[in-house]
Design goal:
The protein is of the alpha+beta class and about 550 residues long. It contains 14 helices and 20 strands. It folds into 2 domains: about 240 residues, D-Maltodextrin-Binding Protein, domain 2 (3-Layer(aba) Sandwich); about 220 residues, Dipeptide-binding Protein, Domain 3 (Dipeptide-binding Protein, domain 3, Roll). Helices cover about 25% and strands about 20% of the residues. A hairpin with a 5-residue loop joins strand 2 and strand 3. It is globular and about 65 Å long. The relative contact order is 0.18.
Amino acid sequence: MKIKRIGVAAIALAAAGALTLSGCTSGGADPSAPAGDATAVITTNGSEPQNPLIPTNTNEVGGGKILDAIFAGLVYYDAKGAAHNDVAESIETDDAQNYTIKLKADQKFTNGEPVTANSFVDAWNYGADTANEQLSQYFFESIDGFSYEESVPELPGLEVVDDTTFTVKLKQPESDFPLRLGYSAFYPLPESAFEDLAAFGESPVGNGAYMLDGEDAWKHNEKIDLVVNPDYDGPRKAVNGGLDIIFYASQDAAYADLQGGNLDVLDAIPDSALATFEDEFGDRAITQAAAIFQSFTIPARLPHFSGEEGNLRRQAISMAINRDEITDVIFAGTRTPAHDFTSPVIDGYSEEIPGSEVLDYNPEEAKKLWAQADAIAPWDGTFKIAYNADGGHQAWVDAVANGLKNDLGIDAAGDPYPTFAEARTKITDRTIQTAFRSGWQADYPALFNFLGPLYGTGAGSNDGDYSNPEVDTLLKEGLAETDIAAANEKFQAAQEILFQDLPAVPLWYSTVNGAWSEVVNDVEFGWNSVPLYYQITKSE
């Protein structure tokens, strides 16, 4: 099946005009649906976060889903990915380099502290400071004064004007800066968070639509219970009574709970049910394009995967993967073979980037390339792909490994880890000694977000430690363009180099495949595959 492309609003900056993001109301309810119970709690699936819930140190899906529910940023993204003001009253610039941000008055954290300009500036300074080793540090790289080499506790590019106004000076004009500000790295923190950030991360205090249901709301490896934040009066105001996010050990277990009426909303259908779930749930099932890219990463530190030999082997492996067959047989057509490193739902996507033919199944060419690499240094050992067993990845990993065995004549196998958190910890601390499942669920709807955080030198999600000065230059030049089309040309040029180096092997684009129970209504999945929980109604 083909993914239908959905439009994503891009923010264009005039050379001498002010940019202001406008407000927007949340999605409306289905008038034909039964009235919802405003006290009813919505149950949904999730995964145990990798780390304590500190916004600047959370860069994975499990923790991100929770943070997006309990925090409100300057902007939020609607179902199609357009940015609208949330805490921000206005975000203005005349040159795409200097921004004035004004906050709505009388905003509060759930502990009663006011949300002020310092709430944002202090949180951003903490996330940007090299001494604090935050996973999302990279997102502050653009701000004047940022440094990877030395600790900068207070960035000169951030200045508090008054309680509800602060300014941001970037190192250069950047076309998509306002669009980034809905990502969790840019969330505010209350002053009390800095008294004990470790404790705060276990029981975070936010300012969003939901809040934790008490200090013991997070039951590790089991679930987290959220209730409605009565003080939040923004555009994502919840119409239900709360959200229970259950951490399942497998997608099959979550699906069984949905079938049995013990789960309200599921956003990840297991492979075993992809061919049947739409028939079973009818108009309570969805298959929708989402800004999700799947791949596996081969770190250059692994034997045989650096230099010319490494590039030849990466290209051979890519050409030995039959993406069409895997997406058709294993995923029942609910995935689309990749043509680039981004997503079809993002403005600027292209299937015509030079070098992308390395993604075509070509076993004969794969054998030739592998033989050329063997002439440099003979292959030895087993090629392994690590993955988290709780995420429904075994079938495709086994299919890729079998293809490599058959087409390249090497030993290949999957290397499962029980949980996502365990796999991510090994990847993050660089103790993993194999290739590993990777991919990206977009933080904000722009091409750069699929490229810079993953392949920029030193980027927070560059788990393979890839570095290419030409790519870095093109990414920087693309950000400096105030015209989105011109910026995207630079990002596509960077992808030409990525196709040569293949720091990650693109596999396919994901759709979101979800379903919901008979007792909930107004279920809508966003551009990034996450349901808009705040607008779901429930009758019991």
